[in-house]
């Protein structure tokens, strides 16, 4: 019994899924994307399917679906825990077989956090100094960008400092991760932008194709 795996993937900003292909090595996909993996058998009937992720059996959950008698594995909103290696084991009364292991490389940030003056402060007196720090675990490494009221500013890196703030500097401040790599989106052809927080404005989400950022509203009060 010959067993193999074929798949299709949809990434968050893709216009359509990639074409079906054989999985024989590590395959890159974006965090929060979806994967549909099919276990194909050369011959046989009365088949039972078992999926493994490393040494753990894959079971149905809110993100994982097993359909078509267990031969099709669907994972939505993939995380780094979905990297594999995945194997499909097939058994019937007269034979059995196991596919070669396959892996995903999950491209995207995790554990994104934004602090203001070392805390979760949002209200400051005019004339104060404001320091924002953005942290994230990212694979591949990401560039940190900043946006103020939906507009990118020239500051890059995990630190944004605003000195002697005034009332007209109140508003939405966002830390945005820019990840290198080919992006098959009509909004951006060369970079992946990622967001971890739904508070980002819808306009910014649409234009930049960002599903990964962290935002805070800063209010400046007169003394």
TrEMBL record:
<dbReference type="InterPro" id="IPR003598">
    <property type="entry name" value="Ig_sub2"/>
</dbReference>
<dbReference type="Pfam" id="PF13927">
    <property type="entry name" value="Ig_3"/>
</dbReference>
<dbReference type="InterPro" id="IPR013783">
    <property type="entry name" value="Ig-like_fold"/>
</dbReference>
<feature type="domain" description="Ig-like">
    <location>
        <begin position="109"/>
        <end position="194"/>
    </location>
</feature>
<dbReference type="InterPro" id="IPR007110">
    <property type="entry name" value="Ig-like_dom"/>
</dbReference>
<dbReference type="InterPro" id="IPR052598">
    <property type="entry name" value="IgSF_CEA-related"/>
</dbReference>
<keyword id="KW-1015">Disulfide bond</keyword>
<keyword id="KW-0325">Glycoprotein</keyword>
<dbReference type="InterPro" id="IPR003599">
    <property type="entry name" value="Ig_sub"/>
</dbReference>
<feature type="domain" description="Ig-like">
    <location>
        <begin position="12"/>
        <end position="105"/>
    </location>
</feature>
<keyword id="KW-0393">Immunoglobulin domain</keyword>
<dbReference type="Pfam" id="PF13895">
    <property type="entry name" value="Ig_2"/>
</dbReference>
<protein>
    <recommendedName>
        <fullName>Ig-like domain-containing protein</fullName>
    </recommendedName>
</protein>
<keyword id="KW-0732">Signal</keyword>
<dbReference type="InterPro" id="IPR036179">
    <property type="entry name" value="Ig-like_dom_sf"/>
</dbReference>
